[in-house]
Amino acid sequence: MTSRAIIGRTKEHLRLTVEDETEKSQTVFWWQGADQPLPQGTFDLALTVRASDYRGRAEVQVEWLDARQQEPDIVEVEPEPAIEIRDYRKASDPGTILR
């Protein structure tokens, strides 16, 4: 979320700008959302899109329906087994050692 503004005669709505991981942004309206907690960090957004003719200007309006906080992926990494290096280049009979 890159911006937030409380709007409406009674200050009950929100106009938000949200951004995806490719930095594409979109204005989203959340009706009666001014007193609701906003998700932090990355979240999934349920929305609806409709035509709007606000003040005689035709545009597409995106409306916030619900959001779900995205849990970070936890990746467990097992350590690689240690590699033991043995140098037999100076051994008197390396063939016997390597068998």
What topology does this entry show?
Elements: E1 3-7, E2 13-19, E3 25-30, E4 43-52, E5 59-69, H1 94-98
3D shape: rod-shaped
**Which structural class do you get from the secondary structure elements?**
mainly beta
Helix content: under 10%
Order of helices and strands: EEEEEH
- Please tell me how large the radius of gyration is: 29 Å
Overall pLDDT level: 91
Please report the number of helical segments.
Answer: 1
Terminal Cα span:
64 Å
How many DSSP-defined strands?
Answer: 5
Summarize the structure in words:
The chain is built from one helix and five strands; from the N terminus they run βββββα. The N and C termini lie far apart (64 Å). The mean pLDDT is 91. The strands form two sheets. A three-stranded antiparallel sheet has the order 1-2-3, with no helix packed on it. A two-stranded antiparallel ribbon has the order 4-5. It has a domain of 67 residues. The protein is mainly beta and 99 residues long.
Outline of this structure?
The protein has 99 residues and is mainly beta. It has a domain at 3-69. It has one helix spanning 94-98, and strands at 3-7, 13-19, 25-30, 43-52, 59-69.
